[in-house]
Amino acid sequence: MKIEVLGAGCPKCKKTGKNVKKAVKQLGIKAEVVEVFDMAEVVSRGVTETPAVMIDGELKIAGRIPEVEEIVKLLSKYGD
Questions:
Q1: Domain count, the chain
Q2: pTM, two decimal places
Q3: pLDDT by residue (tens digit) across 30-52?
Q4: Most buried among 10, 30, 55, 68, using CB within 10 Å?
């Protein structure tokens, strides 16, 4: 599973990245967590609100910082 955190590298985006990593650790799953802070790349993917979270190329969350519990619920649907 590949999880991408997209944004400008602002504190909100970094907090989102930390929450994603906490959720992955909590679930004990294998996942590649990548932070994409190049705005040209973010825009090229059609993301208009940041921070955003993509799982396996699919946009799941945009425009807010998700709580760890929300990410855990989202990831638990995917398994590993």
A1: 1
A2: 0.93
A3: 999 999 999 999 999 999 999 99
A4: 55
